[in-house]
Amino acid sequence: MTIKPGDKLPDATLMHMTDAGPAPISTDELFGGKTVAMFAVPGAFTPTCSNQHLPGYIENAEQLRAAGVDTIVCISVNDAFVMGAWGQQNETTGKVMMVADGNAELTQKIGLSMDGSGHGMGTRSLRYSMIVRDGVVEQLNVEENPGKAVTSGAENLLSQLG
Known about the structure:
Residues 3-162 form the Thioredoxin domain. Thiol-specific peroxidase that catalyzes the reduction of hydrogen peroxide and organic hydroperoxides to water and alcohols, respectively. Plays a role in cell protection against oxidative stress by detoxifying peroxides. Its EC number is 1.11.1.27. It is an enzyme of class 1 (oxidoreductase). This protein is an alpha+beta fold. The protein has a single domain, classed as 3-Layer(aba) Sandwich (Glutaredoxin). Helix content is 29%, strand content 30%. It contains 6 helices and 9 strands; from the N terminus they run ββαβααβαβαββββα. The strands form 2 sheets. Strands 2-1-5-4-3-8-9 form a 7-stranded mixed β-sheet. A hairpin with a 2-residue loop joins strand 1 (13-18) and strand 2 (21-26). The chain is globular and about 40 Å long. The mean pLDDT is 94.
């Protein structure tokens, strides 16, 4: 079953980097009582993710916040160290929170996983974006072509906040 607008995000434990190292963060901590713009990528450091998807959210961070977003979250089925390094390289601090779903727990629970084993990547996330208000999905944009970041891009998500 794939999550859809109106559904509450399931409970899951994710990871993010802190000054003290990797730390768990629950979906309730991440989404409870907030408006969150979340986007998922198949893999950190991959071409479309690094050249199109993440940069769009970094460039539009101020506009998203002005439109009522409290937090911008990038999630990927990678580990917290990889997500932390990718965030550092792209200077996401204060703009985009880099979150690891290393075991694909949330990704599988919401039905947005894909099999990347043909490319040596194992279980990964589909490319998508969503607006989440207090843990409930308001908008969901799943990219039909994982090599593109248009439907799930920051500009489209921003237009849905208006």
